[in-house]
Amino acid sequence: MFRGVHNLSVDAKGRLKIPTRHQAQIEKNCAGQMVLSIHPDDNCLLLYPLKDWQVLEEKVSALPSLNIHTKRLKRKLIGHATDCELDKAARILIPSALRDYAKIGKKIIMSGQGNNFELWDEDAWNKQLSSLDTLSKQAEIPAEVAQLSL
Questions:
Q1: What phi, psi does 17 have (nearest 5°)?
Q2: How far apart are CA 118 and CA 38, in angstroms?
Q3: Alpha-carbon gap, residue 148 to 8, rounded angstroms
């Protein structure tokens, strides 16, 4: 499981160093092979271990191909997917097209989401959190969430 929020930097070549606490897990679970794509609804990137990506890709591919929502999801999520592998310094290269999509500058947030990571430009991350806080105060809490005990 990938957990935590990490404040990181992207180097001049567009590389991101994976935090030390996640490196061994990534090496063990997928031999450093990852897939990077755009989030279909948010201006961030998604980083998956190859095995978890393949499960997601199979689920998306099984959806009805003529459905407009399926087309959108496939074109955004799968169409922008890029294979990436950790180098010897535990870095991945974020292609410029994906950096441009997510408006990623030098400062980046890497947020563990269980079986994947979200990669956000730091300013966009802060705005997103603020927006979610505002929106959640305007909507009723779903029963599933209300029953959750923390």
A1: -85, 125
A2: 9
A3: 31
- Nearest to residue 56, comparing CAs of 34, 78, 71, 79? 78
Q: Which residue bears the tokens 């980046």?
A: 108
Domain boundaries, the chain: 5-122
Q: What is the pLDDT of residues 14-54, one digit of tens each?
A: 999 999 999 999 999 999 999 999 999 999 999 999 999 99
Write out the two tokens for 6: 């990490």
Tens-place pLDDT, residues 135-145 = 888 888 888 88
Answer whether 74's CB lies under 8 Å from 60's CB.
yes
CATH number of 5-122: 3.40.50.1220, 3.40.1550.20, 3.30.390.50, 2.130.10.10? 3.40.1550.20
